[in-house]
Each structure stands twice: as structure tokens, then as C-alpha cells.
Amino acid sequence: MQQGTLMRKVKSKSWKKQRYFKLQDDCMTIWYQSKRTGKTESAFCISDVEMVREGHQSEVLQSLAEEFPAECCFTIVFYGRRGNLDLIASSAEEAQCWIQGLRQLIETRSFSLICALVSCTWIRDWFQKADKNKDGRMNFKEVQRLLKMMNVDMNEDHALRLFQDADKSESGTLEGEEFVLFYKALTQREEVLSLFQDFSEDGKKLTLLELVDFLQQEQLEVEGTEELAMELINKYEPSETARARHVLSADGFLMYLCSPDGSIFNPRHQVLSQDMSQPLCHYFISSSHNTYLIEDQFRGQSSIEGYIRALKRGCRCLEVDCWDGPNGEPMVYHGHTFTSKIPFREVVSILGNSRLSWGTSSSPPPLMGMSPPSSHPRSWTPAAHIPRRLHEGDGHPLVPTSPSTTLQELKHKILLKGKKIGRLEDMLDGPGDEAPDVSDDDNRAEVEEEKQRVKVGVNPNGSALQKDKETLAQALSDCVIYCKSMSFRGFQEAHSHSHPFEISSLSEGKARKLIRDAGNEFVRHNAWQLTRIYPSGIRTDSSNYNPQEMWNVGCQIVALNFQTAGLEMDLCDGLFSQNGHCGYVLKPHFMRDEETLFNPSDPSSWDSPGPVTLTIQVISGQQLPKVANSKEGAIIDPLVRVEIHGVPADQAHQETKYIENNGFNPHWDETLQFQLHVPELALVRFVVEDYDKTSRNDFVGQFTLPFVNIKPGYRHIHLLSKDGTGIPPSSLFVHICIT
């Protein structure tokens, strides 16, 4: 047996150990062992891997950038809280072999898990889990254990009947093809088979014309349906003979429904599909708050991993807080707190990494927000770092040289948000552009922090101009072209004296007050100028506010704590899942008009086309995961809740009954209906919970998407975990009708 590939496993700058890595014969498991002792240390499954990063895309590898070339480095990122695995190959060719191989296995894994009915790998995986004594056979006791593992509480007599039907050799055990028969009987989707037979004349196959009928009548496909039907047969029919005859079997039909083509999310909107030639203020922008933090706001860890994760998640607006560091080197951390610190140069290096910052040539740029540090002149070595580092690459400047009018013109540029030297009102505003609302109890902590920041910048013996020069270096000021920070003093003042390339930052409390008092004015303001919203200073636990109410008035930069999972980040991920996941979403037309009458608190205030009715039949669920930290043998009682998040008149939720003891294939067959007055702003969130009559229900999975991205017809919804990662093959099967 081959030893495998020898690579360095890295945990820190000083901890670098050589290990042998090898993919096992099942193409699902990777083990690694010590070169020195030969002892197998650990193994992981491909199903545990979320992604593979190429180059210096982790904090550890970034610290080793001068020692090892990026071409030899890569990072394996796991689902959940498991730490990354940083590896250094002996050559670029060897690194590429592993990177491309792992990515191919991840892609294959995703498809095979979705199509579990015909996936030999998935069936073999379950067999290995249930075969406790590892004899290659499964007795009935092991079958019962398997059912518990699969979240099924099946009647013992029914389970025995399935077992005996599959035991063709009458040996009292299942092996090989017998287990495949048992598994297929167990996973039989009666609701899908019934739908298939409704359109199949012989009940065994769908001819090309029968598939066209299904696509037109149920899936509401209207253009090129015959070509689409042929494409689906060629893509999803597992039988070569059936493909040659241009027919789709029941297995192929299920594979289509479980695939991205059968998803509730319109595949046409998963690519860059919106007009990218509008002004920047016409887009919602995926934005993070204190991006460097990966824990709480007071004592949490600062890490460049926060920037890497945010960029990988599609974030386009990042926050960098710079403060004095040792030997004149600026550091990034949350000022006036006990958070850890990271060098500013490492952050700039990450933002200048094209693989991270925009990935593909069509993806728009990130923004880099920056809060000023203390006023000591030596602190402004950032002013030297930024122009030098952000003008590298292909020789073109990454920082724009003049205000641009459209997002397209800003492609591949990094915009710095900050103050500029030169205007008297800039000098009088103090060093920060965030103006906390002193009338809001939630923002008292912000007021105190702002006072501290202003005190730091005061020079009692100098003029306002001297203080300004001490606070901001000219080189940094010259980099602020588009997002020039301005304090907000009211909509009328902004309209009279501000410019489209300027930006104001508002606390969540002040923004809510403006929404209540002047909703329409807020929408009009955001039609021509950028507004950034940030969390209240009392959210020291890094909790989040609901971003929907800010999007309802057109606020573009709604900054959230990306490290905190929950409803708020589900909404953020849902909104920005469209348009190629590029982090920019074009606002509805009525929010881009400076004379609009739209007010989210009163949908009747503008000439809307009228309400839309969304009807959802929740049919069934498939292989729902167990609740984390549940007792051994516990089986969930799942229910489905559908939530509408949008303008106040559209906010609603409804839920199904719960199904006792069945997380494997629960059937609800319940219909939920909603009226949407402003569907352009609505997000639809599907949540699965484990019902508990004595305490709060436990979270199982969710999926959130914009209403405008929903595909009608029979669709699968592939669930995500609490932290936004996939949990294949867990899904819901629904029928969607929009009238």
C-alpha cells in the first residue's frame, strides 16, 4: 500500500510537522499519519469539508507567506466549529493535484447526496455505519440500529417485512445488492412516484412529450420546453438505454427534482444577472461590522480569518479599525476594549489578494471602511501601507482616482471610507463619522465610546486645522475618493450641502427613529446617497439587529456581525444569494427614484400593482438531521414554519403541525398562504424545528431566499445549518403557486 503524499501540516508559525496524506479507496475518507512514528493520527470524510482555499488564505499561512510560496499552500475548511487544516505541499504541481482533486470530490459529493436514491457511495456509507461488527453483513438488529441513526422510528413489523423482502438468499442477513434493495425500499418517495405516474401513461417512464407536459403544466416553464426536456433527460437519466430513447425513468425524475434544476431557487438568478451599470447607491451591499472580530465585541479574538470568512461569504463592505501599535506599526482591533490585535499590514495584504477580494473577473469590488486611530503622527504609517499595497497587481491602481458614476466603472477597485482633509465642517465633526443618537437609550454606550475617541484627538494648544492634520495623513485622505464620511444632520441639510459620493453612518437606534418619523424621506435620501447602519454599542455579545427594516427604506450598507449565526444572518445570506452571490443586489425601481412616494410603513402611499398571493403546499421532508447534543436514540418531531420578512404589512408566519418521531421522511401535506403587498422586498424563510411541548423548539435547518427568486411548481428546498452551511441530503419537498 502506498504511504500517500508527504506534506507539512501547519498549526502556527513554529509548529510545522510532516505528515503522509492519502485518499482511501472509498473516495470519501482521507487519513494522515506521522512521518516520524508512522502512527495514523486522524482521518476526515469528504462530507465534513466545506471548501478548499488556495494560497495564503488563512491566518497561519499568511504568517508564513515569506517562507513558503502561495502556489504550494492550501487550506481545508470544515463545516461547523472544527478548525481549519493548513497544508504545504512540496511543489505547486502536488498542491494543485490535491486542490483540484478535493474540489472535484466535494462537487461529486454534493450531487450524489442530493440523488441519494441511486448513489452507491451514499448507500455504502450507511452500510458501513450500521455494520457494527464489520463482517460485511447486516442482521436485523443492525438494521434497527440503522433506522435510529437515520432518524426513523419505524414499526418493528414493517421494518422486519422490508428486511425479509430484501433478503433474497434467506440467510437472515443482508449483503451487497440485498442491502441496496432494502435501502431503495426504505427511501421510496411515494409522493414523487405518484406525481410521476400522473404524467406517465405506462407508469414506468416519461416520454419526451409527457415530460414537456409536466414542465409546462406544473413547473410553469413556457419557453423552449422541448429543448429543456431533452437537456434534463441527458443530464439526470441514469440509464444509457433510456437516454438513447429520449425517456425519463422514475429514478431520473427524482434526480431532476432533487437537482439545482428542481430547486425552489431560480437557477437563472444564481449567476450575475442584474444591471451593474447603476450608481453605487442603487444597490444593497453585503456589509460586515467589525469584520476582524470572530467572537464578542469586548474581549473577543481579532483575526484575519474574520476577513477571509466574510469575503468568502460574499461580503463587499469590510470594517478596519486602526490604532497605534508597537514601533509605529498600526494595529487593528476594537478600540477601548480588551479584544486581541492584528497588524494592519496583514489586513491590507488580505484585501489586496485578488483571489479573496473578487475571485472572478466579473465580481465587483469590496469596500474598506476605516475608523481613525489616535492622533499621534506616528500612527499614520497606514497612510504609507495603503497607497503602496493597493496599487499592486497588474499595474493598475486598486483605489479609484476619481469619483465614478456607476458600479461597473468601480469593478476591481477598493474604496476607502473615511474623512478627507480640507473642509471646515470635516474638522469640527471630530475624528469619527458615526454620530450616536443621544436620545436613544440603546446608544448610550456608543456615546461614551465616541467621547473617548474625540478626547484622544484633542490638542488644546493647536488650531482646528492642526488637529485635523494630526488626525489624518494627507496620503490617506487622498485615497478617500468615493465614500467620503460625513456626519448626518438631517435629510434637508444633506440634500442642500452633500454630494452623491459622500456617506453617513447611523446607529441602528437613530435609523429606526428616522424610519418611524420620515420613512419616505429616508427612501428618497437613499436613492442618491449611501447610508451605512451599524449595530448598537450595547451589543457587546456581537448580536445583530434585524436588517430587513433598514433595507425597507433602501439603506445600502447594513453592517452585521458575520460571526453570529441566527435569523439576521439568514436574511442577509438570503438577500445576497442572488445575482451570482456577488454581494450587490439592485434595489427595486421605486427605491431608485429620488421623487418616489414609497413609504414602507404605508404601501398604499405609492402606485403599486396590487398584492400577490403566495401559496405553499408543504408536502414532505427528507433525511432531516438530528438536533445537536440530543440524547442517543432520540428522534425529532419536525414541523415547518414559513416566515415572510418584508415591509410591516407583509410580515407574517405560519407553520404546519408536527410529525411525531420521524425525521427521515415526514409527510405534512399542508397548505399555507400569504398576501404580499411589496413582493420586491420580501424574503421567504423556511424553518424546520423539532417540536417540544415543554420548552422552546429546537432548530433543525432553514433556507431563506428573496420572493422574486422563487420558481413555481414542485420544488425541493435544500436546508442549511444554523451557520449557513449545507446539510445534504436534508430537504423539503413543496409545491409553489404565485397568483
Q: Describe it for me?
A:
There is one protein chain. With 739 residues, this protein is an alpha+beta fold. It folds into 5 domains: 5-109, Pleckstrin-homology domain (PH domain)/Phosphotyrosine-binding domain (PTB) (PH-domain like, Roll), CATH 2.30.29; 112-187, Orthogonal Bundle (Recoverin, domain 1); 190-262, Orthogonal Bundle (Recoverin, domain 1), CATH 1.10.238.10; 280-393 and 403-423 and 466-591, TIM Barrel (Alpha-Beta Barrel), CATH 3.20.20.190; 612-738, Immunoglobulin-like. Helices cover 29% and strands 22% of the residues. The chain contains 23 helices and 28 strands. The strands form 6 sheets. It has a 7-stranded antiparallel beta sheet, with helices on one face. Helix 8 (208-217) crosses helix 9 (225-236) and helix 13 packs parallel to helix 15. The protein is globular, with a radius of gyration of 28 Å. Residues 111-119, 373-380, 391-395 and 423-462 have low confidence and may be disordered.
